[in-house]
């Protein structure tokens, strides 16, 4: 009787572990498909989607939607141009120097500061507070994903 219980416990444990592995693999595939899809979108399409998501989350007025659409369109165009430039360098086999990496990080932080100031001008106080909470949640999610990714590599 004990042997049967031990055997069932082992089979059950192996089954659960196999299912978890499949779920992780499926999540990774979905993430990759989403990433490919988003890379194929134009900057205007990306900006429209981002604006609509913010409209749903923050209950934006029509005027706020137009201002945020303009802001996100400019942001998406800059990001797309930088990504294409980095892709060209990557295809050539060139890696950014320390100075270039510093410059990119500095530019990204400057852009984040400018975005934050502009959003503060566009949104009401309550909307801005909610937007900041959304940004913090988003950053925490990215950090968590990076930690998981590093753990799987090792």
Task: Please provide a written account of the structure.
The chain has about 150 residues and is an all-alpha fold. The chain folds into two domains: about 1-40; about 45-125. Helices cover about 90% and strands about 0% of the residues. The chain is built from five helices and no strands. It has helices spanning about 1-40, 45-60, 60-90, 100-120, 125-154. Helix 2 crosses helix 3 and helix 3 packs antiparallel against helix 4. The chain is extended. The mean pLDDT is about 85.
In short:
The chain has 154 residues and is an all-alpha fold. 91% of the residues lie in helices and 0% in strands.
Task: Give short descriptive properties of this protein.
154 residues; mainly alpha; 2 domains; 5 helices; 91% helix; 0% strand; extended
Which helices and strands, and how do they pair?
Layout: H1 2-40, H2 43-58, H3 62-92, H4 98-122, H5 125-153
Helix pairs in contact: 2-3, 3-4
């Amino acid at each position: 009787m004990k042997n049967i219980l031990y055997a069932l416990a082992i089979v059950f444990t192996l089954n659960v572990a196999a299912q978890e592995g499949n779920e992780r693999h499926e999540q990774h595939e979905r993430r990759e498909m989403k990433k490919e899809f988003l890379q194929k979108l134009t900057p205007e399409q990306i900006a429209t989607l981002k604006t609509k998501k913010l409209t749903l989350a923050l209950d934006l007025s029509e005027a706020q939607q137009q201002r945020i659409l303009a802001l996100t369109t400019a942001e998406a165009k800059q990001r797309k141009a930088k990504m294409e430039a980095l892709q060209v360098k990557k295809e050539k086999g060139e890696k950014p120097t320390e100075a270039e990496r510093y410059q990119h990080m500095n530019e990204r932080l400057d852009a984040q500061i400018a975005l934050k100031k502009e959003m503060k001008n566009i949104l009401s106080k309550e909307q801005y507070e909610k937007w900041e909470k959304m940004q913090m949640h988003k950053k925490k999610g990215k950090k968590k994903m990076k930690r998981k990714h590093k753990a799987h590599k090792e």
